[in-house]
Amino acid sequence: MLRQASQERIKLVTLMAFISMPLSGFVTDIYLPSFPAMARNLGVDERDIQLTLTTYLLSYGISQLFIGSILDSIGRYRPRLLALFILLLSSMAITYTDSVFIICLWRAIQGIAVSILVVATRALFADLYQGERLKNYLSYFTIVWSCGPILAPFLGGYLEKMFNWKANFYFLAFYAGALLVFELAFSGESIAQTKRVNFRDNIFVYKEMLQNKLFILGILVLGISYSIVMLFNITGPFIIENTFHFTSVTIGYCTLLLGFSWGIGGFIAKKRMDLEFDQRVWKPLAVQLLAIIALLAVSSVYQSIYVMVGFAFLIHIVSGVLFTSFFTSSMLFFPANAGTAGGLMGGLVYIITSVASSLVSISGEVASQGDLAWRYLFFAILLLLVVFSMSRLQKKA
């Protein structure tokens, strides 16, 4: 039992848990710079390649809805081992196929595996820590997780240029394999007492969570904030390569820079956690909306990769601020059911993101920074409406 292990071992497992957090970002983002190359190599349309990401996000989101309660019932350790093995196997399998349909199937399986890892890791902290220490660790979650979106596309761009797009999935297999070896050697079960699977109790817990309006509205903020970031991730590579005529390495540098913006937003949010709701939320939202309007205005007269990425940097900082702020507060709603709450929250966030990605894909070609700016504006307005509803609800409370 990990809870009864020495403090040195618990610290080591905690450190490795943080190291494992960026894995979900790597699985999502490492092959983004390779989108145009994959489309050419596989002889398919851009939308077909985007579908591999949408499939993953949808699988990742839906599976998290159920994974949390299962992990509360059977523990965290063995599911993590199984998930890491599946991720290793599926990453290798993708390198041996040239079918987009088969890639989508494997990506759906990866979504399930990564959801197990993410929910189990969140719950591990709630198992081992309490009070202010737990709150402090939770506030670091999105900061550490952002290392994935920061580094993955940068690394993926170079891997694609030096080898080909399949090298990205070889790297994922290596990452998962290294974590699997550590888990087998040092980790263990963290939950003090598992809970019997009781569907009636599970339904009651889910009902209680779904009826908490502030919890659900917070999840909507998380989903829309992350959708704003994913908007650039699924459209930016094509704009950079097809419109501005830069290579996959440049795509990697751009997404690296925007990954830093997400991390900066996380640090800013951590410093602002003690502020009142209105102070903590409305000022960043106003900055984001003004940046999007400015990008629209500039796009009507001037198109440049530097302008597009510069404005996106500021827009994504605000998304990072909002995501970290609402993630920390949402995880503290139901500490007694941390696995279930984390799974429900993560699941709904990625379902929202996958729906948003689908809307972007069917909304028409995104070929310029102006097209990108209009879609930024759409999501920003949705975000304003949700936050306005939360503000009114809090004032009534």
Automatic annotation (TrEMBL):
Keywords: Membrane, Transmembrane, Transmembrane helix, Transport. The chain crosses the membrane at residues 12-33, 53-74, 81-102, 108-125, 137-155, 167-186, 214-240, 246-269, 281-299, 305-327, 339-360, 372-391. Signal peptide: none annotated. It is a multi-pass membrane protein. This is MFS transporter. It comes from Sphingobacterium tabacisoli. PANTHER family: MAJOR FACILITATOR SUPERFAMILY, POLYAMINE TRANSPORTER 2-RELATED. Its main location: membrane. Residues 13-397 form the Major facilitator superfamily (MFS) profile domain.
